[in-house]
Every structure is written in structure tokens, then in C-alpha cells.
Design a protein that fits this description.
Oligomer: single chain
Order of helices and strands: EHEEEEHEHEHEHEH
Shape: globular
Strand content: 15-25%
Number of helices: 6
Structural class: alpha/beta
Helix content: 25-40%
CATH architecture: 3-Layer(aba) Sandwich
Strand order of the largest sheet: 5-2-1-6-7-8-9
CATH superfamily: Glycogen Phosphorylase B
Number of strands: 9
CATH topology: Rossmann fold
Number of domains: 1
């Protein structure tokens, strides 16, 4: 199985170490797409410094609307999907984010199943655009990964009825890397 993971979080060294663990437990290939940097809140620039890439391929690609969690997306993702030809697209972004809906739309065109990740969040009101993006994601995604049971409940309340795995992989601690990687890989296999 070849998995393409798209994540702005993978510019961090700790996250890359976790990806090395994930790649080691996979029976297949892991390719990760990241932006060259992320403009954080307050204008701080988070740059790709460490490169822990043993066992997987890391591709740095341009990003549009850098610094906006809800508006950012990867303009070259369509070409990367065509050249990499993954069995599964893992979008490490929430349902209402442009990166997710853009990625799912491209995956549908390519005949590739896609999953998304939902971070902890409250059940707050959303703008019509965010509601539309969520609805699109819920209609077309093959699966969702959430951080905890509360987030899963919110996801269900918002209309998601697909397969869901509770795997808090953004709370990375090296002692948990192997267990989380095995859980993610098992979920990947169930979504293909």
C-alpha cells in the first residue's frame, strides 16, 4: 500500500520522527508532502529544520494562503497525486479547511480514497463556507481520524457517519510512537 500524507505539521522534527515509526510499521510506502515553512499566529515563521526521513519520502511543495489554517491548500497536489499514484490520501487537516476539500476533490478525480484528521475542537458555529466544506468532506471522505471521544461525538453531531478512528497522534510522545503508528496503519488498511 502506498500512502500520501499531506501535512503542514510535518515540518516539525518530532512529527518527522513519528513518521519514521509509521513508515517502519507499514507494509508499503509512505510519501509525505509539506510546505517549505508555516507562518504561525503572530507572524512567526516555522521552517523545516530537521529532516528525519528514514523510511519515507518527504516532498516540499508550495502552499497557498500560508498561515491561514482554514484557507491554505497545496496548488501542486493534483500533479503529485498523478505522479505518486497512492492507494490512499491522508489529509492531515480538518474537514472545513480548504486543504481538505481541495485534496478530496483531486482524490475523487484520480479514483483515490481519502481520509482526514479532526483535531480537538468545540461544537462552535461555523460560517456558511465552512459548513459547505465540512459537508463536502463528510460526503466524500473514506474515513476520519479524531483525537478523542469528544471530537468523535462532535463529528457525528455535525453529520459525519463514516468510519472513525480515535488516534491522538498530534499529542506525540516518543513512548507512544509505535502504538499510534500501528493503529494508523490498521486504519489505513481498512480505508483502502
Amino acid at each position: 500500500m502506498r500512502v500520501l500524507l499531506v501535512s503542514r505539521f510535518a515540518i516539525m522534527g518530532t512529527y518527522q520522527r513519528w513518521l519514521e515509526t509509521l513508515a517502519a510499521c507499514m507494509q508499503g510506502e509512505l510519501v509525505v508532502i509539506i510546505p517549505p515553512y508555516w507562518r504561525a499566529t503572530g507572524g512567526q515563521i516555522e521552517r523545516l529544520i530537521d529532516r528525519h526521513t528514514h523510511g519515507y519520502q518527504l516532498i516540499v511543495t508550495p502552499i497557498r494562503h500560508n498561515g491561514s489554517a482554514t484557507r491554505h491548500y497545496y496548488p501542486h497536489l493534483g500533479q503529485l497525486l498523478a505522479s505518486i499514484r497512492p492507494d490512499l490520501l491522508h489529509l492531515d487537516s480538518c474537514a472545513e479547511q480548504a486543504a481538505t476539500t481541495h485534496g478530496i476533490r483531486l482524490a475523487i478525480r484520480a479514483g483515490i480514497p481519502a481520509i482526514f484528521h479532526m483535531e480537538r475542537r468545540s461544537d462552535r458555529r461555523r460560517s456558511p463556507l465552512h459548513w459547505w466544506r465540512e459537508h463536502y468532506t463528510y460526503t466524500h471522505a473514506r474515513g476520519a481520524i479524531v483525537d478523542d471521544l469528544d471530537t468523535q461525538t462532535i463529528l457525528r453531531h455535525r453529520g459525519w457517519h463514516g468510519p472513525t478512528a480515535i488516534i491522538p497522534y498530534h499529542d506525540l510522545h516518543p513512548d507512544r510512537f509505535a502504538l499510534l503508528a500501528q493503529e494508523i496503519y490498521a486504519f489505513y488498511a481498512s480505508c483502502c
